[in-house]
C-alpha cells in the first residue's frame, strides 16, 4: 500500500521550461522516504504539488489511495507538513503558535504540551517565536506538523539550520515517530549522508526528472555492485593480460589494476593464477563506493 | 459552520499583540482622550458647554469630525492591511493553506476578524465619547451632565452608517493585501485612494470613489453642501463592498500559488 502516489506529473512556471517532467513517485505506507536531489532539482515543487500549494497541471496525485483534488480536506486532515522555512507567528510564543493551529485542527489542548515536550521546546515560556534560533524555529515547525497526530509527515529539508546534535536529535525523533507511531514520513534533502541513516526508501530527482526510486536496500546493492577491486603486483601488464584471458574486465590506473566487482571466489581464483605465473601480489583491496558518490554519479549523468 | 467558527477563533488569536490589535484600542480612544483632557484641564469651557441642551450633539459632532475625515479611513486601511499581511510577513500562507479547511473558510474567517475588529473599534469609540464627558463631569461636579440624556438612537444610527461606509475600504484593502506580498503596496494604494477620494469630493461624480463615503456622511450630518445630490451613497458603499468582496474571493480561490 502506498501513502503517496504521483503519476506522470509535470509542472512549469508560466512559459518557462518544465521544472518537473513526468515525475513518478511512490511512497510506501510506514516508510521513511528520502527525497533527494541537488538544490533546484524540483524537490520543493513536487512537495508543494502534493500538498496542493500549487495547481497541478498534468498527471495524477493520490494520497492514501484517494485523488487529492477530490478529497483535499479529508487528506489534509491526516498530513503534517513543514515546507522550506517554518511557518511561525513571530509575535506569539511557542504555545500561542500551537494554539492557533490547535483551534483549526481541534486537537486536544494537552497535545500542545506533548508536542512541545517531543521537540524539546517545553521550557521556552514567554519567549516569542521571532526570538528563537533557527534550530528552535525548525523544531517548533515540526511540533506544528505533529500537533494533530498525522499519519503522513511531509518535511522539506527539516535539518536546515540545525547543529550536528540537533540533526541527530531530529533523526531520532523521526525514527521514533515512524517506528512507534507508524507515521509515514517523506523527507527531502540535498545531502544523502544526512538521511541515509534514517530512510527506508529513496527517490532521487535531478533537473525535474526522477533518476532513481527504490528501497535503501536496493540502493545499497547498487553501491555494492559499483564497488571496485584493486590489485597491486610486480608486473601489472602481464597480470592484466592474464585477467583479460579469464574475461575479467580490468584496466591499469595509477600503477595498479582496477577490476569491477568480483565475487570472493573469483578474487581467490585470480590470485592463484597470478601466483602460478610467478607474479608477486602485494595487495588486493575491495573499495566500495559510498552512497554519496552513487548519488553524485546519478545526478551528474 | 463549525469549521468557520474554529477558523475564526484561530484567526482571532493571531492578532494578539500586533499593531492592528493596538490600532483598534488606540484609534478608538484617541480622540475621546483629547476631549476628555480638554474637559479636565479646561473646566470652565466644559461646564459651560454642559449647560447647553445640545451638549451631546456638539460633542459627537466634534469627535466624528476628526475621525470621519481622515483617521477612520486611514485606520481601516492600516488595520486591514496589517491583519492580512500577517501571513506574508510570517511566511505562513503555506501552512494555513495546508490545513484541513476549505479556501472559502480561510478567506471569510480572516475577513470576519477584520469586520469584528471594526465593530470593536466603533464600540470603543462610542464608549470613549461617553467617558470623555463623564470623567470631567465627575471630577468637576458637573451636575448638568445628568440632565443630558445620551441620544442612543442617534449614536446607533450614526455608527451603523459610518460602519457601512467603511466597508468598501475594508473589502478593497483586503483584496489588495491578499494579492501583494509587499506591505507597502496595499498601504500606498490605500492612502493614494483615500487622498484621491478626498480631492474628488466636490466633483459631481465624487460619490463613485469607494473611499469617500465616511467624509460624505460626516458632511451630510452637518448639512454642509458637499456631496452628491439625490444619490444615496450608502447604497454605493454597500454595492462596492459586495462587489469587491466577491472579486477578492474569486481571486483568492483561483490563486495559482497558495504559499
Automatic annotation (TrEMBL), chain A:
Question: Does the record's keyword annotation contain ATP-binding?
Answer: yes
What InterPro entries does the record point to? AAA+_ATPase, ABC_transporter-like_ATP-bd, ABC_transporter-like_CS, P-loop_NTPase
Keyword Lipid biosynthesis attached: no
What Gene Ontology molecular-function terms does this entry list? Answer: ATP binding
Give UniProt keywords alphabetically. Answer: ATP-binding, Nucleotide-binding, Transport
| Domain of life, per lineage | Bacteria
Domain ABC transporter as annotated: residue spans: 4-232
Sorted alphabetically, which Gene3D superfamilies does this protein's record hold? P-loop containing nucleotide triphosphate hydrolases (3.40.50.300)
Give the family per the record: Belongs to the ABC transporter superfamily.
Q: What is this protein called?
A: ABC transporter ATP-binding protein
Taxonomic lineage is: Bacteria, Pseudomonadati, Bacteroidota, Cytophagia, Cytophagales
Automatic annotation (TrEMBL), chain B:
Which protein, by its recorded name, is this?
ABC transporter permease
Organism taxonomic ancestry: Bacteria, Pseudomonadati, Bacteroidota, Cytophagia, Cytophagales
Protein source organism: Emticicia soli
Q: Which domain of life is it from?
A: Bacteria
TM ranges: 20-43, 63-84, 105-132, 152-176, 183-203, 233-253
Q: Which UniProt keywords apply?
A: Membrane, Transmembrane, Transmembrane helix
Amino acid at each position: 500500500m502506498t501513502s503517496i502516489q504521483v503519476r506522470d506529473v509535470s509542472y512549469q512556471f508560466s512559459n518557462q521550461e518544465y521544472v518537473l517532467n513526468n515525475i513518478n513517485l511512490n511512497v510506501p505506507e510506514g516508510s521513511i522516504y528520502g527525497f533527494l536531489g541537488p538544490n533546484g532539482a524540483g524537490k520543493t515543487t513536487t512537495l508543494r504539488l502534493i500538498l496542493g500549494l500549487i495547481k497541478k497541471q498534468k498527471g495524477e496525485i493520490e494520497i492514501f489511495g484517494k485523488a487529492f483534488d477530490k478529497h483535499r480536506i479529508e487528506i489534509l486532515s491526516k498530513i503534517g507538513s513543514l515546507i522550506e522555512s517554518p511557518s511561525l507567528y513571530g509575535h506569539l510564543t511557542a504555545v500561542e503558535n500551537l494554539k492557533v493551529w490547535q483551534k483549526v485542527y481541534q486537537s486536544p489542548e494537552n497535545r500542545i504540551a506533548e508536542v512541545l515536550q517531543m521537540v524539546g521546546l517545553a521550557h521556552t515560556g514567554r519567549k516569542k517565536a521571532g526570538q528563537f534560533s533557527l534550530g528552535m524555529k525548525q523544531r517548533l515547525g515540526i511540533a506544528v506538523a505533529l500537533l494533530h497526530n498525522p499519519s503522513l509527515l511531509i518535511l522539506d529539508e527539516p535539518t536546515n539550520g540545525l547543529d550536528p546534535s540537533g540533526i541527530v536529535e531530529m533523526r531520532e525523533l523521526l525514527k521514533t515517530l515512524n517506528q512507534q507511531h507508524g507515521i509515514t514520513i517523506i523527507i527531502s534533502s540535498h545531502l544523502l549522508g544526512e538521511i541515509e541513516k534514517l530512510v527506508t526508501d529513496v527517490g532521487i530527482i535531478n533537473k525535474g526528472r526522477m533518476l532513481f526510486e527504490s528501497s535503501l536496500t536496493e540502493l545499497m546493492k547498487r553501491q555494492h555492485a559499483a564497488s571496485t577491486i584493486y590489485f597491486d603486483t610486480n608486473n601489472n601488464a602481464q597480470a592484466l593480460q592474464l585477467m583479460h584471458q579469464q574475461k575479467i574486465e580490468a584496466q591499469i590506473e595509477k600503477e595498479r589494476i582496477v577490476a569491477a566487482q568480483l565475487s570472493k571466489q573469483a578474487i581467490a581464483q585470480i590470485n592463484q593464477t597470478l601466483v602460478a605465473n610467478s607474479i608477486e601480489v602485494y595487495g588486493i583491496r575491495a573499495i566500495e563506493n559510498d552512497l554519496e558518490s552513487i548519488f553524485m554519479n546519478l545526478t551528474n549523468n | 459552520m463549525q469549521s468557520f467558527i474554529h477558523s475564526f477563533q484561530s484567526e482571532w488569536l493571531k492578532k494578539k499583540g500586533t499593531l492592528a490589535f493596538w490600532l483598534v484600542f488606540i484609534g478608538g480612544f484617541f480622540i475621546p482622550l483629547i476631549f476628555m483632557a480638554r474637559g479636565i484641564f479646561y473646566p470652565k469651557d466644559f461646564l459651560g458647554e454642559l449647560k447647553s441642551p445640545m451638549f451631546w450633539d456638539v460633542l459627537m459632532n466634534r469627535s466624528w469630525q476628526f475621525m470621519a475625515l481622515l483617521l477612520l479611513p486611514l485606520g481601516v486601511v492600516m488595520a486591514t492591511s496589517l491583519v492580512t499581511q500577517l501571513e506574508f510577513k510570517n511566511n505562513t500562507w503555506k501552512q494555513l493553506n495546508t490545513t484541513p479547511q476549505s479556501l472559502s473558510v480561510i478567506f471569510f474567517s480572516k475577513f470576519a476578524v477584520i469586520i469584528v475588529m471594526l465593530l470593536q473599534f466603533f464600540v470603543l469609540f462610542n464608549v470613549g465619547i461617553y467617558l470623555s464627558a463623564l470623567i470631567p463631569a465627575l471630577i468637576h461636579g458637573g451636575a448638568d451632565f445628568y440632565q443630558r440624556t445620551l441620544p442612543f438612537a442617534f449614536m446607533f444610527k450614526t455608527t451603523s452608517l459610518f460602519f457601512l461606509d467603511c466597508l468598501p475600504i475594508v473589502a478593497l484593502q483586503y483584496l489588495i493585501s491578499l494579492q501583494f506580498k509587499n506591505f507597502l503596496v496595499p498601504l500606498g494604494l490605500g492612502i493614494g485612494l483615500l487622498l484621491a477620494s478626498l480631492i474628488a469630493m466636490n466633483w459631481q461624480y465624487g460619490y463613485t470613489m469607494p473611499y469617500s463615503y465616511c467624509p460624505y456622511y460626516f458632511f451630510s450630518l452637518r448639512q454642509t453642501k458637499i456631496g452628491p445630490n439625490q444619490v444615496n451613497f450608502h447604497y454605493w458603499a454597500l454595492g462596492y463592498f459586495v462587489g469587491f468582496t466577491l472579486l477578492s474571493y474569486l481571486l483568492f480561490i483561483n490563486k495559482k500559488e497558495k504559499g
